Amino acid sequence: MRKVILVGWMMVMVMSLSLFATNLVVRGSNTVYPITQLWLEAFKEMDPEVVATLEGAGSSTGIRGLFNETTDIANSSRFLSAREIEDMNQAGRYFVSLVIAYDGIAVVVNKSNPIEEISLETLKAIYTGTINNWNQIDPNLPSGRIAVFSRSTASGTYETWSEKVLLNERMHPSVQVVESTQAEVENIRRNVNSIAYIGLGYVTDELKVLRVNGISCTVDNVLTGLYPISRPLFMFFDLKPFGFKWPDQGVVSDFITFALSPKGQALVAQAGYIPAYGDK
Amino acid sequence: MKRNRPSLGADFSNHVFRILVFISAATVVLSLVGIIFFIVRESLPAMQNLGFSLFESDWYPTHWDASYGIGIMLVNTILIAAFAGGLVWIVGMVIALYLKEYARPKEREGIIRIIEYLTGIPSVVFGFFGIVIMAQWLLNAGAWTGLNFLNASIMLFLLTLPIMVSLTYQSLESVPVEIREGAIAMGSKPLGVMAMSIRVAFPGILNAAIISFNRIVGETMIVLMVSGGSNLVPQSFFDPFRPLTVALGSEMGEVELRSLHYSTLFLIGFVLLVFSFGLTQLSAEIAKRGERWLKR
Q1: Which residue of A has its CA nearest to B234?
Q2: Range of the domain at B150
Q3: Residue B49, class by beta-carbon neighbours within 10 Å (0-12 exposed, 13-18 middle, 19+ buried)?
Q4: Which ipTM was obtained for this model?
Q5: Chain B partners of A176 at a C-beta cutoff of 8 Å?
Q6: CA nearest B147 in A: which residue?
Q7: Cβ neighbourhood burial of B136 (10 Å; 0-12, 13-18, 19+)
Q8: Residues A111 and A203: beta-carbon distance below 8 Å
Q9: Which A residues in the span 163-182 are in contact with B, Cβ-Cβ below 8 Å?
Q10: Would an 8 Å CB–CB cutoff place A29 in contact with chain B?
């Protein structure tokens, strides 16, 4: 009998524990994933009660999660589509959208390469395989087969590249898909004929950053939207569970406040992206 | 009582030990069955959806008009395993023969010690060496890109050489002295004796080659770092390529859960598993046959 009481008491304890623990589900874009990961790590340190679930499953999946209430926050590398806004209105919902960071992608080559500038069309031609020698771009450039590097096609950086440069065309199979930005940097440093694209946060002095369509890849140009290979990154959450009022308290509110705080925005830079607010 | 029955305590500990041994054995079997079950279950959607289009050449799993062909990567896996495996077989055999036939005892001990050290090097270190040093050498030698078939071959060669040498050396060592002495008595020259030992040790040597081949097929880290990652069959040693394990290793972390892409990655895992099972089976078969062959 005693045992039964003990077990029952323990079960009640466990249940009450899970009742009091606050859950936070974040889902969506793979691009935003590394930022959110850093945020959640720091956030859990401040509030150990929080049980957070983070899933990188693509922007659309995150937004779908908001509709069927399986996520608290949706990460997205694009804004809501017209169709989604219509659906949202019909469902009587209101998704708050926050710009949390900017993603700028720099085109880099070896320091010894005399090229200074490249156009989006040329970039597309290189990555789809129609141009494969530097002197095809400009006869003044030295002849040499271009060693083209890309990130994994499952990565968020590739997603942006595919959308803004390849215009959703298929990348040529000869493009060398490497595992990390670090591997790209290593190859660019060593190989005089190489080209790659990397997040602006990863650019170092050892690389030469090209102007794209005449615009240099700087934080300012990304923030003003002048630089063509860039985009804002978003976080959406639904106001319906809060009775269509701005949530003043609760885990969602705390998390958003933290994400947009100077500390949260510093983590954005740490993840290799451009902070949307505060110090650049 | 005449029979010497074990005391109750001994009986009990014997029982506990038996249970422990049984549990460990069952864990191995269960985890193998579990892994196979899991891989097959997760790859089932891809099998149903793709069918034989799996073996086509286009691999664009994240494109809006996606295609999931692993044909080229499969060919690349076989190519690199055949080339690096062949190389490691020949060189490994030469080293093992040298150790057995020519090396002085001190020398042999030294070389075996060095090979033991080589065995302990993690593959990521080879990969790093490939990116930082070998790639630079190849570029200096005129390659158009540092990450290529030759680079991966050399790194995989270095990785598997120790296994090849020690297994080959062991099978040469196990050649009965009578056979060597017999050959000498028949008037064989040293080279003839060596050929005789190779013939006798051949099943073991072949087995060693299959084990290294298997290791190369499954190796992920090195090729992930130095293969170059182009979905093309290399036309020269300096061309980049992409074996199956690279797709698996680089995309698994970022794939959408339960999507067709996810399932196809598991199907790649299943293909590799079948490959590895086949090779292991082959090596077991050779070991068995070899024994029979020797007894004859």
Answers
A1: A174
A2: 59-294
A3: middle
A4: 0.84
A5: 145, 147, 228-230, 240
A6: A187
A7: middle
A8: no
A9: 168, 170-171, 173-179
A10: no
Q: Among A125, A104, A99, which Cα is nearest to A216's?
A: A104
Contact A249, A114 (CB under 8 A): no
How many angstroms away from the CA of B241 is the closest CA of chain A?
A: 8
Do B254 and A187 count as a contact with CB atoms less than 8 A apart? no
Residues A194 and A184 sit within 8 Å (Cβ to Cβ): no
The CATH number linked to B89 is 1.10.3720.10
Supply φ then ψ for residue A202, to 5 degrees: -100, -5
B254 vs A56, A170, A193: nearest CB: A56
Q: Of the CATH numbers 3.40.50.800, 3.40.190.10, 3.30.300.20, 2.60.120.260, which one belongs to the domain with range A2-102+231-275?
A: 3.40.190.10
Whether residue B5 lies inside any domain: the answer is no
Across the A/B interface, how many CB contacts are shorter than 8 Å?
89
Q: Are strands A22-28 and A50-56 parallel, antiparallel or unpaired?
A: parallel
User: In angstroms, what CA-CA distances link A253 with A88, A185, A199, A208?
Assistant: 21, 38, 29, 42
Contact A211, A167 (CB under 8 A): no
Would you list the domain boundaries of chain A? 2-102+231-275, 104-230
- State how many domains chain B has: 1
Is B256 a domain residue? Answer: yes
- Whether B30 is covered by a domain: the verdict is no
Question: pLDDT in tens for each of the 280 residues of chain A?
Answer: 566 666 666 666 555 555 556 789 998 887 788 899 999 999 999 888 888 888 876 777 788 889 888 899 999 888 888 888 999 999 999 999 999 999 889 999 999 999 999 999 999 999 999 999 999 999 999 899 999 999 888 777 888 899 899 998 999 999 999 878 888 999 999 999 999 999 887 788 999 999 999 999 988 898 888 999 998 899 999 999 999 999 988 899 999 999 999 999 999 988 878 899 876 5
Q: Which residues of B touch A194 (CB under 8 A)?
A: 145
Longest Cα separation, chain B: 87
Give the three-class secondary structure for A162.
helix
Please report whether residue B281 resides in a domain.
Answer: yes
At the topology level, CATH places domain A104-230 in D-Maltodextrin-Binding Protein; domain 2 (3.40.190)
Task: Find chain B residues with C-beta within 8 A of A58's C-beta.
Answer: 256
Nearest neighbour of A153 by CB, restricted to B62, B64, B146: B62
Q: Does B243 touch chain A (CB under 8 A)?
A: no
What DSSP string describes A89-146?
A: HHTT--EEEEEEEEEEEEEEE-TT----EE-HHHHHHHHHTS--BHHHH-TTSPP-B-
